[in-house]
Structure formats: C-alpha cells, structure tokens
Amino acid sequence: MKARPALSIQISGASSLGVSEGLSSSLPAISTPLEDTYRKLPGTQQVSAKRELMGGPLVRATCSSSNSGVVGHIFSSSSGFSSDLHYSSSSPHEKHSSNAPFISQAPTNGAASPLLQSSNRMLPQSMMSSHYYKENSGSWCTDPGFPDFPISTPVQSCQVESTNCSGIMTSEDLCRSNEWQEWAEQLITDCDALASNWNELLVDNVMDMEPKVAKPCTSTTLSEQKPQVHQQLPSLSVASRSVVNSSSSANNAPAKPRMRWTPELHEAFVEAVNLLGGSERATPKGVLKTMKVEGLTIYHVKSHLQKYRTARYRPESSEDYSLFCFIGFLGRAVYSLLLVSIFSLSGSLEKKSTSTEDLSSLDLKTGMGITEALRLQMEVQKRLHEQLEIQRNLQLRIEEQGRYLQMMFEKQKSGLDKLKASPSDSENPPAPSDATKELPAKGEPEASQTNHVNSGTDSANVKSMLERSSEEMGGEQEAPKTAETGVSKSSSPPSKRPRIE
Amino acid sequence: MKFGKRLKQQIEETLPAWRDKFLSYKELKKLVRLISSAESPEFGKADAGAEFMYLLNNEIDKFNAFFMEQEEDFIIRHKELQQRIKRVKDTWGPGGTKPSEAEYKDEMAKVRKDMVDFHGEMVLLVNYSNINYTGLAKILKKYDKRTGGLLRLPFIQKVLQQPFFVTDLVSKLVKECENTIDQVFPVEVEAEIVKEQREAITVAGKGIFRNTVAALLSMQEIRRGSSTYGHFSLPPLDLPDSDLIHSFQLNSPITTV
C-alpha cells in the first residue's frame, strides 16, 4: 500500500470535505450539524439522516458516501448512499456475483492510480452536482457507477442505474468513496497518520472493512486490499462482510459498527475461544488476538462473546418461550383431538371419538402426537420457507425487468434526442414536427423491443413512464399499450381490476 | 384484505420481541397522503417529503440492524444445536460414555423440539425480511402514484442490496437445519405419518407454529388479486394444502393450565 499517494488523496479528500461543507452550508438545511457529522463518522449518518431535506441530498451524499467509502461501502446507515454501498458490498450472491471473480483479479497497483486521478479530477464536478440535487429525491438514489468505476465491474445493474441518475451524481459518489477509501487505507497502514477524532472513529470502521471486503465487496477501490486480504484469510474471505450501522450508534466517539457474521467467522471464533479455555475464561481481547482477523474489532468480539455465552449456558435462548408453547401444546393436543372429530379433515378421522377415552390415553397419544405435531410444524415451516424463496426470486426478477425496461426506454429516449438533433432533418421545420414525426417511428421499434423484452412480467411503472415521456414528446403512442400485452405470468392482468377483498 | 391490515395481523401474531421491528406502514402511508394533499404546496410538501425519506431510511436501518442481530444469533445457535446433538449422542447414545435409552430419548426429544422451533424462527426471519420488502415496494408505489415522483425504481434497487433483504445465509442455515432434523427424527412408516399428521392438528396459542401458519396465510392473502394488480405485482400464491393450513386457523387458542 502506497502511503504517499494515499496521503495526497487524503489532502484532497480533506479539501473536498471542506468544499462540500462549504457547499452544504449554503444549502438550506444543514450548517452546524454538518460539522458535527464530519467530526463523528457514525454520527454523520445519523445526522445526515435527520436532514433529509431537499437541500440535504448533497450533504448526505457527502457524509454517507464518504462513510461508506471508509467502511468498505457498508455503512448501513439511514442515508440513501450508504445503501448504495451496501449494494456494492453486500450483494455477493445476486446477479452481481460476477463481481467476485473480478475482485480477486483486481490489480493492486492498477487500481490505485486511476483512483487517485479520478478522485482529483472529479473534485470540481462534485461542486457542480450539488445544484442538481434539489431535484428529485431519486437523485441520490444510487452511486451505481461507483463499483463500476475504475475497473469495469461487469455489473449491469450499475450501468442501468447510472443512466437513471445523473452521471454527475455517480462520479461524485465515486470520487467521494474513492477518497474515503484512500483515507481508510492510509489509516490502516499508518494509524498515526491523522490526528483527531477522525482516527478514532475511522479506525474501527476501517478495520471492519478489510476482511469482509474480500469477496462481496465489489467496490473496486478496495481492490488493493483485497489480494492482501485474500492471502491472509483464505477461508474467512469467502462470505464475510462487515456492515457498519452508524445510526444505531450513539453520537459518542467509539463507533459501534455492526458486523455481519458468517458461519466461517464463527468457527474461527469458537476455535479461538476453545484455545483460550472456554467461553467463560476467554476474554474479548484474547479472542481478538487469537483470531487474527483483520477488521474485527473488540466490540464485535465482545458482543459476540456475550451472545455465545448466553447461548451456551441457556441453550436455546428462546427456550423459555418455546417451553411455554410446549406446555400449551400438550393441553391443546387434547382439544385438537376434539376438534378433529368435529372438523374431520379426512374421512378416517370420523372414527375418532371425543371424550374421556382420549384423555386417558393422553400419554400415549401425546407421546406420538408430539413427534407428529413437530413434523407437521416442520412441514408448514418448510412450506413457508419455500414460498418465501420463490417470492423473493420473483421480486428480484420483477425489479430486474423493470430496470431493463427502464434502460431500454432511456436508450430510446436518447436515441430520439439524437435524431432530433441530427442535421439530416433540418429540411423540415425544427423540433415539434420533428418530434411528432419521429414519434410514431420510434413508437414502433420501442414497442417491439419492449415486447421482446417482456419475457417475464409487465411493468406498470415503465409503462407510465413511457406514457409520461410520450406526452412530453407530444404524441400519443401505441408503445405503452403494446408493452402491456407482452407475456405475463400466470394470468395476464389488466392494469385495473375490480377490487377483490 | 388490505396490506396494512395484514401486516398488522402479522405483527400481532409474531414473536413479541419483534413487534416493533416491522415496517411502519401506516405512518408512511399517512405521510404520503400528507404530501399529496399538502395545503401550502411548497413548504408543506417539502417537509412531508423530507420526513418521508427520513422515515424510509430509518426503517431500512432498523431492518438491517435487527436482521443482522438475529442472523448472528442464529449462526451461534445453529452451531450450538449441532454440538448439543453430538453431545447427547456421545453421552447417552448407544456406544456413548453412559448409554441410556431413556435419557437418550428424552434428550433427543428436547433437541428435536428445539430444532424445529429454531427452524421456525429462522423461517420467520426470512418472512420478516420479505414482508418488509413488500411493504416498502407498496409504499413506494403509492408515493410515486401520489406525488408523480420517480422514487420507486431506484430506491427499490437499493433496497434489494440491503443486508436485510439478502437472506441467503439464513436460508442456507434453514436448509442445513432441515437436513439435521431429518437425521434426528425417528423413521416412521409413510402411511402412519400421513394419518398422524392429519390427526395431530394443534395450533399453539402463541408460538412459532402459529406464527408460521399466520405468515403463510398472510402471504397468500397479500398476493391475491387486487384492484391495483399491475406489472410489478406478484402472481397469486400457489399453495398446495391450503385447506389444511386454513384449518389451523379455525382452532382458536385456549388457555391452558
């Protein structure tokens, strides 16, 4: 890790901070709290969260993206940006899994310099972008380009999103996160580098970032560290991620970052504890040392150790709860036998007679009944889980479709704009009639494209967006209607349906 | 039934510790209404809008924090359960240090019960994640509809990446748990099992089981057709044995000694 370049970034980072601070103070909401937020890293998120005013976005962007950058993009704080970084860090298994292979190959040196340059370059832009923020709340929506940035991460969603939001926004995020990344690295390698609160706060967060960064973090800015991390923690790098939840932390100095534990990490933890003589004997410090996992802080270990102890010496912490159920269950077993005879789900049950007979053979029955009831419970639970998984996949696909359609739409739009601007049409009277002329032409390809695209679900939102833009362009289009007729799932729902209660 | 009501129901039926961790759907809805009908157009709208965003982000933080906390607990308990099984087998099982069939059976029964409940809790967490996501999607849709904003699409993209929505680890634990349970449960004849299942209908008053049943039914309800069924909506739930599950709800809980 090159300390020197990091230093320079640091400075530029600081100056950008200053810049943004200045900017943000000019924005409606946030002057003093802003400074506070800068003082305290975790607090940043919190305060910025509180200032979600229209003018706020920039500030939030600053704060959160910077934070996220520091933490390896995983501040799970309230601001939108942090979630962006979540996006980059916590989506290992999704379609972004393509990131993983990318990560391991990232050249360390290669990554460093573009980052440096980019961050420097983008600095001025960040100032301008503040003005754009007043607009829609969606502006802060993502830093999609961010993971994309220095080295092209093959994540489609990134690109899609970056076309959604203003490009400036993207680059600004990038800039910030990059800068913060450098800060973080700087701190890691040279803890005494910076004076002041920053260090205290950042150290914790920064430490978090490291190991967890390994696989899931698609952030390219971490690419430098990743190879190192890989070497150090071959097994742990697999699925670990660290998350910082700053909004839950108080406004005090020691940050309480939340880490996302994994079974592998837990294994290492258990081993360390056993080495140290058991959960009672082991101390957080000792465990931390033994585990030798970079980025793990004593806070993490402490809280985890506490949970571990509770789980061991009061096995099944919800045991009391389930015990209650158990007792209740016994009583209900009898009752249910009664009900069964009444409701008789299957024909054979009619033979079941109610009354004392059952009660006397209660022992036997409940003995059997318990296991069977457990089985039943398992069945229901399995069923629920299955359905949840299916539902989740559906949701993901729906959104993916939506994004894709949106992207297509944007492309169409930009294509249309280009056409409008093209000289070959200068013969005709400018703009309006051009637009109307292009419209039908555009409408067709658009419709057919959206039709082809619609393998899964239709997209009401995209449809409405199409409608909106078509109105802007001054023409009625067939496109939205035809888009709707694209293939839909089980039943093809019309957009409105009589309400079914 | 409206989502808000369903959500409320779920919250009521869920584990008490979880009650305040769900989405504040009603509040968000109020804000949306406020936004779209603000008296003083500029100021009121901006305020409500900001409040909305603030609340949204806070909710997401809340979900993340809670989810990860639970996840960590599950990881620990999962391992502990496995260790416990091993211990029981090694101590009281055949070939153990002090083999005793009675003890073994006893302990195993306890383990089984705990495992099933554990499994249920994990599934409920996944359900928690899902229902909050659904709520978010709905509220965003309302927002866009009422304010003509374009918040939904980009925001939901971000939500998709949030830790609370990435439930892969928990799902994995669930599957592992299922495997372990299969190993730990006594083998029985198929036909008997089916019959027993139908006979042993119990609805625990409060408890994991009841929650799970409620969750499943809720899901079914939520996904039924509605007037605003659109292209971003999920298709109706295909739930075999729906009757059986519905029957669980017929039994009202009774207080027991």
From TrEMBL, chain A:
Predominant location category: nucleus
Sequence ranges of Polar residues compositional bias: 99-116, 447-462
InterPro entries xref list: Homeodomain-like_sf, Myb_CC_LHEQLE, Myb_dom, Myb_dom_plants, PHR1-like, SANT/Myb
Assigned keywords, A-Z: Coiled coil, Nucleus, Transcription, Transcription regulation
Keyword check for Nucleus: yes
PROSITE patterns from the UniProt entry: HTH_MYB
Chain intervals with Basic and acidic residues compositional bias: 435-445
Cellular compartments annotated: Nucleus
Domain HTH myb-type span(s) in chain numbering: 253-313
Span list, region Disordered: 86-116, 415-501
One Pfam family, short name: Myb_CC_LHEQLE
Homology family: Belongs to the MYB-CC family.
Protein name: HTH myb-type domain-containing protein
Organism (species): Hibiscus sabdariffa (roselle)
From TrEMBL, chain B:
Taxonomic placement: Eukaryota, Viridiplantae, Streptophyta, Embryophyta, Tracheophyta
Positions of the SPX domain: 1-157
Superkingdom of origin organism: Eukaryota
Organism: Hibiscus sabdariffa (roselle)
Pfam family, one: SPX
The protein's name: SPX domain-containing protein
